[in-house]
Amino acid sequence: MTGTLILVRHGESEWNLKNLFTGWRNPDLTEKGIGEATATGKTLKAAGIVPDLFYTSALRRAQRTLDLILDELGIVDVTITRHQALNERDYGDLAGLNKDDARKKWGEEQVLIWRRSYDVAPPGGESLKDTAARTLPYYEAEILPELARGKTVLVAAHGNSLRAMVMAIEALTPEQILKREIATGEPIVYKIKAMGSLEETVKL
Fold first, then answer.
1. What CATH number matches the domain at 3-202, 3.40.50.1820, 3.40.50.300, 1.10.10.10, 3.40.50.1240?
2. Band of the pLDDT at 1, cuts 50, 70, 90?
3. d(CA 122, CA 132)
4. How far apart are CA 133 and CA 125, in angstroms?
5. Domain range summary for the chain, segments of one domain joined by +
6. Among all residues, which ones are annotated catalytic?
7. What is the pTM (predicted TM-score) of this model?
8. To 10 degrees, the CA torsion angle through 93, 95, 100, 106?
């Protein structure tokens, strides 16, 4: 049996717009972000994709993105599972700082290492490797069994928690996943075999 997995990064947030490190901080969507989430719902509706199960993080921007997608799909009165395992990477001491100000404080090279290395965490925060260490066990325990039952699962989350899942699903190396951009409000759709391996990536 093959399941369908839809991954959606939240629409543009207020802090994305301001070029701030966000992490576990909790800004809302911008008007553009609302439009991106609504457009995702329209895209899924046009493709005839109707999710059975819904997962999101503990953060407002992902939750609101999911709500807007459901509104567009006309889906009401469903159970939504919210869990911090799907939260964005924790940026620790960088959270709330403008990225240009962070470069002035720590130097451009150091900030680049924190942003683009796989296993080097910023002070008080998480690396992508750390993020994967909490996201993937949750994915494997909670989401994969539903895919194995042939369910269609929608996950609205964040750039780095989704990166961790994409890395596992597509069998990418740390170097490959660091080059992979996850755009705001653009769904990634996979067909997943019962054993958890990728059957195909669906083009919408």
1. 3.40.50.1240
2. confident
3. 16
4. 13
5. 3-202
6. 10, 88
7. 0.96
8. 10
